[in-house]
Amino acid sequence: MKIAFAGLGVMGAPMARHLLQAGHEVVGFNRTAAKAQAWAEATGGGYAGSVAEAAQGAELFILCVGNDDDVRAVVTEALPRLADGAVIVDHTTTSAKLAREMAALAAEQGRAFVDAPVSGGQAGAENGQLSVMAGGDAAALARAEPALKAYSKAIKHMGPAGSGQLTKMVNQIAIAGVVQGLAEAVHFAQVAGLDTDAAFEAVSKGAAQSWQMDNRWKTAAKGEFEFGFAVDWMRKDLGLVLDEARSNGARLALTALVDQFYAEVQAMGGNRWDTSSLAARLQPKD
Fold first, then answer.
1. Phi and psi (nearest 5°) for 116?
2. pLDDT by residue (tens digit) across 103-122?
3. Could you give the residue numbers annotated as active site?
4. What angle do helix axes 211-222 and 163-191 make, rounded to 10 degrees?
5. Please, where are the H alpha helices in the chain?
6. Could you give the CA distance from residue 265 to residue 249 in angstroms, rounded to a whole number?
């Protein structure tokens, strides 16, 4: 397929690379033009100086940008330049409201918009092992799916426009609770005088096991957080979750509490720390 990819950051760059390696024609765009040029030089892909240039004649337009406003600006500029019947796949985590708005706008111009946030983080993008949760027209997703498989281990259609974003909110709610529990477990083990490595071996093969425990227990116990999914990004996502909950009446007391704990981590200077840095706020102050 002729594909345009907007947003060549820590997630988008490897995803676009996987598309090239799968044999697709890919033109990359990034708001910082030097980053797009560097990606093209490293991979052999093309790059464009504007969204409109990247979108020209593309059959599939993929986004992995920052927030609702970024998606709205990119999609609005791209739509008139895309091939007739083109599919837009948005991997950005946004509000469900924005996804519905973009789906309606695309339909008005004879194109399709699929909201398709991902889970798996930078490692999943690098390894081509992302989980994609998608909302929008099922036929449009089916047309895009062969390409998306280049960097995905699972793609699930969840329903009409916005359903992918709502499912990503479910994902972030679950992670928030698990990471807070992990932070308290590590903290308790340390205060109780246990060997944290031994405690991990004792509990990680039973009902307490989770991806977070397997991948973040040891680094949290060492106070190492300079990697992974940033606190700033998690707060953005939880803000979307809590806004949606205010609209639909969902009761998310724990999620709201964890969001405030992340605010404390930001106040400690941990804006770019991994989400497991909830453990940092429990450490004794000097």
1. -140, 65
2. 999 999 999 999 999 999 99
3. 168
4. 50
5. 12-21, 33-43, 51-55, 68-78, 96-108, 121-127, 138-148, 163-191, 196-203, 211-222, 231-248, 253-267
6. 28
